[in-house]
Amino acid sequence: MDDKNKENKDIKITITLPSTAYFVSGIRDFTLNLVKNTTEFSEQWAFRFQSVIDELCNNAIEYGSSPGSDVRITFNLVHGEFLEIVVEDTGTGREKLKAAQVKKMYEDRRAPGYVFSGIRGRGLAKIVGEWTDELKFEDRPEGGLRVTVKKYMKNPRQNENSLKTGQNSLSSEEIGEHIVIES
Amino acid sequence: MTEVNISIEDSASTPEKVVKIVHISGQLDESNVDEKIKEIYTVVDANPKNLHLIFDFSSLDYMNSKSIGYLIDLYGKLTENGGKVLIAGAKTNIMDILQVVGLTQLIQSFDTVKAAAESLQNSTAETAPTPAPAPVPAPAPTAQIETAPQEPAASTPTAPAETAPQEPAPATPAPSPVVNPSAAQNTAPATPESPASAAPEAPAVAPNPESSDTYKLQ
């Protein structure tokens, strides 16, 4: 990878794909390579983003889409700062959940002591929630949901180094998760 | 459909312990997991008691949260019927996923299939009564067997999208052998979640006037 490309150029990539699970593996591969090759995130985080994007896309497809509709994914990379991923659906799925409903569901599943039953339901709370620093649910004016996640590169959360070896080391002090809801 | 292959191999078994190795290679995701997992449930249905499954993840490159859900369901079904689920050879990224969802609190993982199989054999040896030493015959000591608590029966998910199997109560949290030190060092401490008695899925809520909320760290 050319270092010049890495240096200061922020990147925005938007992908639109049909709402079918068959295409998501390609998005996973793309995400893995994008993060590995163009960001300062470690390989571990590249794999984690792979899971994050997979879970978000699957939710958009399963709950927010109908056959023939699209899902839109946007990657916003600000070098040295953060990676933001936005997943949007058309809201034409069978459940037609609003942002507030999804938010409530997410909060419930993040609550201490919540017991997961069933095959499903862990992706958003356990994977996306744990491996991102910010998570936002919005209703799109044109219908559907927009889910935005953001992961900062220099963030001591989870007591680990987000960056590749040789980058700034992070504090080893474990910081508990604090969730703030914007009013 | 994303490529994945599942093959199931018989391992050394006894009447008290049916052992099979489940080799999974490729990626388990939304496009294939519902279909492919049936192969494993077929084996489970054919061996209702004392089935021990060793999942060989050495060639597994990705697994999604639904496949985790199936793994937990299989764990519940097997342990309630005298069986066990073990994981072997999981790659670093797979172990990371298993840790973040708390599965490593529930299921033991090993470096290799061989190590997992030996673990099962050793537990067999422990269950065998120690012969009484001569010349003073003493009663054979009761074997210390680590068992999972009995769980309510879980239904075989005939339609994977519809079922809600009971998750088992936590077994005594014996620490999993750390089989991948690099994974243990690099991964975040997973929020310990010990599945207790099953709770229903969160009910749908009435729409809230708020349309957007952001969660962020202070």
Task: Write up this protein.
The complex is a heterodimer of chains A (183) and B (218). By secondary structure, chain A is α+β, with helices and mostly antiparallel strands. The longest helix of chain A has 22 residues, at 43-64. In chain A, helix 2 (24-38) runs antiparallel to helix 3 (43-64). Chain A is globular, with a radius of gyration of 17 Å. Chain A has helices at residues 3-7, 24-38, 43-64, 99-110, 123-128, and strands at residues 11-18, 70-78, 82-88, 134-139, 145-152, 180-181. Chain A has a 5-stranded antiparallel β-sheet with strand order 1-2-3-5-4. Mean pLDDT of chain A is 84; it is low at 165-183. Helix content of chain B is 27%, strand content 20%. In chain B, strands 1-2-3-4-5 form a 5-stranded mixed β-sheet. With 218 residues, chain B is α/β, with parallel strands linked by helices. Chain B is globular and about 40 Å long. In chain B, helix 2 (65-79) links the parallel strand 3 (51-63) and strand 4 (84-88). Residues 140-213 of chain B have low confidence and may be disordered. The N and C termini of chain B lie far apart (42 Å). The chains are: A alpha+beta (183), B alpha/beta (218). At the A-B interface, helix 2, helix 3, helix 4, helix 5 and strand 4 of A face helix 2, helix 3 and strand 6 of B. Strand 4 of chain A pairs antiparallel with strand 6 (213-216) of chain B.
Quick recap of the structure?
In chain A, 33% of the residues lie in helices and 22% in strands.
Q: What is the SS-derived class of chain A?
A: alpha+beta
Output the number of helix runs of chain A.
5
Q: Write down the oligomeric state.
A: heterodimer
**Largest interface, C-beta within 8 A:** A-B, 61 and 59 residues
Output the keywords.
heterodimer; A: 183 residues; alpha+beta; five-stranded antiparallel β-sheet; 33% helix; 22% strand; disordered C terminus; B: 218 residues; alpha/beta; five-stranded mixed β-sheet; 5 helices; 20% strand
